[in-house]
Amino acid sequence: MAEEAQELQLHIIDANEARETFSSEENSFPDQIMTESIMMRRKSRYYLKIAIYAVFVLVGQSAATLLGRLYYEKGGKSKWMATVVQLAGFPILLPYYFFISSTKKITINNKNNNIIDPIPNQASVFMLSFVYVSLGLIVGFLCYLFSFGLLYLPVSTFTLICSSQLGFNALFAYFLNSLKLTPCIINSLVLLTISSSLLVFQSESSNSTNVSKNMYVIGFICTLAASAGYGLVLSLTQLAFKKVVKSESFKAVMDMIIYQSLVATCVPLVGLFASGEWNGIQKEMEEYELGKASYVLDLAFTAIGWQVFNIGCVGLIFEFSSLFSLAISVVGLPIVPILAVVFFQDKMHGIKAISMVLAVWGFISYMYQQYLDESNGEAGKRDTRHVTKGTSPLEVDERRG
């Protein structure tokens, strides 16, 4: 009888444990569904932001490059003015910038009972100023080099050389941002290097800008140097976000754009007045082939286009990486040369066509690596979820086998 009573008691205990386990699993099931739903919404918002930034990069870059070339085609001569419009459009962002700043202050007030506490680990004003000023000065100088290139090169050639930014950025990201140089990325770098190098052998007859061979070489060197410098700036920007800014907000992106553009704009403005080109602006406007109004509109929309590009570029750096930002920029390679053939009668000769194919191939190689990284990341997350549900790591390895 004692043994039967003991067995009955064990059965009751087992039944209670089973009910508790079932109840626990039943309660955790809705929580799991809710968690997965929240994660899906966050992921959707994340990819939506990436898509918006990518559109900004493509549209802004294409429109601004074509309008910049139109300025030279129709009578514009001032390289300093062409540089100013690349940078001086940032005031159009100020209303939105101040709106974000005021919204953030209100939120902090509400959370802290009207007491604003400093943000943890916030960088000092001196360090932030150093980042904005140094990057701004570099960007101002690089934009001047880009203006030289756009003056002396056809739009299609200029754009293809700019694709080398991806290769330069990958090189700098390896040293500054701990980028892993996988076979796909190395293949991408080699293809982009060959793509730009081929344009050195382009014949003078294919140069639709009607400049001398020496001017063509100067334009090529300036564009290549500016592309290398821009690749470095993007890597430094990513490093600054990680080491100095240390903020996960869109306001941090706007701060980087506004203050960096403010400093960068001072460089061509000083050059415009110091060189004396300012005195010829009135005459240049009057002699512009499309008229004074078109002259002003061309410069204004060029400035707006570059600011749209900057928002997308810095946004992609903040959300992903500097290399991915440049990869999206390279997507515009087939767009600008084709439009240049239509609007500026640029000639698409064999060397230029091969260069474009290699550039696009290099971009696809890089994007394939991004796809592999994303797939491996998702696989890692799934394995982590299996382990947390009670499966031992040994069992996971056995299933893989």
From TrEMBL:
Residues covered by region (Disordered): 378-401
Keyword vocabulary terms for this entry: Membrane, Transmembrane, Transmembrane helix, Transport
Main location: membrane
Record family assignment: Belongs to the purine permeases (TC 2.A.7.14) family.
Bilayer topology: Multi-pass membrane protein
Record protein name field: Probable purine permease
Organism whose genome encodes this protein: Pisum sativum (Garden pea)
Molecular functions per Gene Ontology: purine nucleobase transmembrane transporter activity; purine nucleoside transmembrane transporter activity
PANTHER family: OS09G0467300 PROTEIN-RELATED, PURINE PERMEASE 21-RELATED
GO cellular component terms attached to this protein's record: membrane
Key word Cell inner membrane present: no
Source organism superkingdom: Eukaryota
